[in-house]
Amino acid sequence: MTWLESRHPMKSTDKLVPVxxxxxxxxxxxxNKGITGVFKGGISVIDIIDGGAVIVNNVQTFGSTTDxxxxxxxxxxxxxxxxxxxxxxxxxxxxxxxLQDQFIITEAALAADRKSVMTxxxxxxx
Length: 126
Hints:
By secondary structure, the chain is mainly β. 0% of the residues lie in helices and 67% in strands.
């Protein structure tokens, strides 16, 4: 998954928290269990703790698959600038409903231009 962000600081209690409007992007998967589609919008809030040593991320995005099925993606996690891992939940119906029951772990990386984020998701199975 890749989404484009437009970052703006937002006042949260006594500190500024980076907030990004998700302004587009795409979602695709390998194999026959996944989906392909576009992100239409959303928001990303990142809380930086302990002088930047810890990052807490919360992302809400929505979009639709190539066949028109709407979806909502929620991603939340905690990590460091070097290792940012999160849990992804997918709210989707139709032919993709089985993906809602999957345990998906993601790894995110901010692009060098700091204008997009690439997130790779892994379905955890037993």
